[in-house]
Amino acid sequence: MRLTPGPAGDIDLGAVDLFDLDLYSHGDPHPIWDVMRAKAPVHHQVLPDGREFWSVTRYEDVRRVLSDHKEFTSERGTVPTHLGEDDAAAGVLMTSTDPPRHTEVRRPLGSKLTARAVKSWEDSIRSTIVRFLEPALDGEVFDLAEKALLLPAMVTGPLLGIPEKDWAELVQLTAMVTAPSDPHFLVSSEAATLAISHHELINYVTAWVKDRRASGERDDSLLDHLMSVRAGDRELTDEEIALDGYSILLGANVTTPHTVSGTVQALIERPEQFAKAQADPSLIPNLVEEGLRWTSAACNFMRYAVDDIEIGGGVIPARAAVVAWIGSANRDETLFPDPHTFDITRANAKRQAAFGFGAHFCIGAPLARLTLRIFFEEVLERFGSIELAGEPEHLRSYFIAGMTHLPIVAQKRRTS
Predict the structure, then answer these.
(1) pTM above 0.85, yes or no
(2) CATH number, domain containing residue 278
């Protein structure tokens, strides 16, 4: 979807379809969200097939929905591709589980992903990013969005314990899960794409665990660590390990590439921001936060109301699906003045909602922040300029906001 909105025009909220894939691949949802925040902060939509959902678009309402598991449960599914059919893995899959079980599984994994813990990976991540950027320095066209799909696997593969030979396949499968209608990932139909990708990812982790148990090998990788996690008074079953490993693979792969490409596009379109960051590298951490706000790669998450809930001046009925639009919350003018301006000096950029809120706040946020900081340190150190070399192509997904193609040409930075 376009990250810099066009003119708003007249918007009839009664005719708006927030599940229209064309809105994200070729259109512009931001003017719609602007009107929704102002006039309909709780919006009800019924799809042609009878499925229905309520949307919240204001920052504070999004935070409440994602933070309060007693009012809004994750235990029926958390992504809109499951709308209308409860997630079969809910209550087991970490992302579709509420506390206390969610906390029991998450806490030991989170201890491996704190800012202090991932700091030890800085040199390795920097070497990986330097290697990733090297082909872009020859002055030829470099498709950043296409290439960046593999970047998280290059960074996190060793951390997870995934061999390099499997990275490309797993990246393709996780993309199929999150954008099953995009022509780059579609296999026959959306339903078939989802079924194949779910099956193959679960099978991969299941086989990984089986092989690890058979060999008796143990290491410090995150998937290996998952094998020793306890939920309450027992270890996880192999099925639970497979489901939670699947969740970790998705989280590791699907958002960082789009934050990278969307933020680079913003800098290309605003060369004064590029120059400002290059002149003052201390701005790079804030550039990362503004990039996270601006791109909102995880465009939304879904919850279900436990009871009738009053929120945003409306009422969401018990058991109703609620979509919390992170992409809208990150452009809420009551918190982010002039929200459609990309500004790397924005004072409160770190309040961005890209990592979510509450118990399900992104467990990999410290690693993502570190990776993005190093990426932009290296880009600004090595590139004197970056220009578009063709039209961006946007992902056909209402769940992940991103690009499939962003052709660029970069020039080396001259050193005095």
Answers:
(1) yes
(2) 1.10.630.10
